[in-house]
Specification:
Strand content: 5-15%
Number of strands: 5
Strand order of the largest sheet: 2-1-3-4-5
Radius of gyration: 18 Å
CATH architecture of the largest domain: 3-Layer(aba) Sandwich
Helix content: 40-55%
Distance between the termini: 64 Å
Shape: elongated
Number of domains: 2
Number of helices: 9
Largest sheet: 5 strands, parallel
Structural class: alpha/beta
CATH class of the largest domain: Alpha Beta
């Protein structure tokens, strides 16, 4: 094709825990002449690792996934790879826009988005990202206290916040139940909280995905 720029491809990492949905997005993007899928991930943890390895231009990030959610994965990628443009793909009816911005997410599209609209969003958002034009919400991201947790502590924390009992967390992480209790103790100590409710409220305040405020009214339940 005449007049193509030297690096005409937009390299995309597609993240979604649903295989059919992920493969559908990959198939659609493969048909576009200016984009190529350089990696696929089925979890937030895998997305962070692959983003570091393949250095994509764009990450299409599902927000609701088991384990580490898309918001937290996006935040960690954005902190270490500010050159990468992150676009959320979600089925949520209403978006916590402030939390999206704090997670370094530059744009958001619905899972029912049509391919031409998705492609246009990728091109437009990446262009703005490269020019340094970002929404005010992400201009000054706040420090997240959950950064002090190790990857395994964060995994245990996310599962506990999702309502899993220690025995379930143990099975999910392939560890002994007493190890889960050790993780829980270290998490509380590192984050300076003294109860599950305090931990949950801290997670809500810092946009950890999949966590519901135990007391949205601020009063007794």
């Amino acid at each position: 094709m005449l007049n193509d720029p030297p690096n005409r491809f937009i390299d995309v990492l597609v993240v979604d825990d649903h295989d059919l949905l992920r493969r559908g997005v990959v198939s659609a993007l493969t048909e576009l002449s200016d984009m190529r899928v350089v990696a696929e991930a089925a979890s937030g943890e895998e997305a962070i690792r692959l983003a570091r390895e393949v250095q994509p231009d764009v990450v299409l990030m599902d927000l609701r996934m088991p384990g580490m959610g898309g918001l937290e994965a996006a935040r960690r990628i954005g902190m270490t790879q500010p050159q990468t443009c992150i676009i959320a793909v979600t089925a949520w009816d209403s978006e916590p826009w402030q939390r999206l911005g704090q997670s370094h997410i530059a744009a958001c599209v619905g899972k029912n988005v049509q391919v031409p609209d998705l492609a246009a969003t990728i091109r437009r958002t990446l262009g703005a990202h490269r020019r340094g034009r970002q929404p005010p919400a992400i201009a000054e991201p706040t420090r997240n206290p959950f950064d002090v947790l190790s990857a395994r502590e964060m995994q245990a924390c996310t599962l506990l916040l999702a309502g899993h009992r220690p025995a379930q967390v143990a099975r999910e992480m392939f560890i002994a139940p007493k190890t889960v209790h050790s993780f829980r103790y270290r998490i509380f100590e590192k984050l300076g909280v003294g109860s599950d409710i305090e931990l949950t409220k801290l997670a809500v305040a810092h946009g950890i995905a999949g966590v519901r405020d135990p007391d949205p009214s601020g009063g007794p339940q």
